[in-house]
Amino acid sequence: MQFHLLFFKFCYPNTVMEKLERVLSALWTVLSKCGMIVKGLTEKFKEKDTRYTGSATLSYEDFMTMIIPFLVA
Questions:
Q1: Using one digit for the tens of pLDDT, what is the confidence trace for 5-19?
Q2: Taking Cα atoms as reference points, which of 30, 15, 18, 33 lies closest to residue 70?
Q3: How many other C-beta atoms lie within 10 A of the C-beta of residue 27?
Q4: Using CA of residue 22, residue 24, residue 27, residue 31, what is the dihedral sign?
């Protein structure tokens, strides 16, 4: 019974502010990971967009080779 109370005291936030801090921290982690994925995909796309027109023609294999590393990371 005492372990159960200690677990809840130290593992779960007690105040609204602590809950908000945990939510914001998790959100920041997700957003920063998304930003890194977008940046990486942009760099890969730029390699294929040799004329810098904002468009590129890719085969299915090229497309999958470009995005798979970002999906499994």
A1: 666 666 666 677 777
A2: 33
A3: 10
A4: negative
Alpha helices in 1-73 (DSSP H): 2-11, 16-48, 60-72
pLDDT tens digits for 10-48?
A: 666 667 777 788 888 889 999 999 999 999 999 999 999
Q: Do 58 and 66 meet the contact criterion of CB atoms below 8 Å apart? A: yes
Residue pair 66/41 in contact (Cβ under 8 Å)? The answer is yes
Contact 66, 59 (CB under 8 A): no
Q: In this structure, what token pair is assigned to residue 28? A: 């920041």
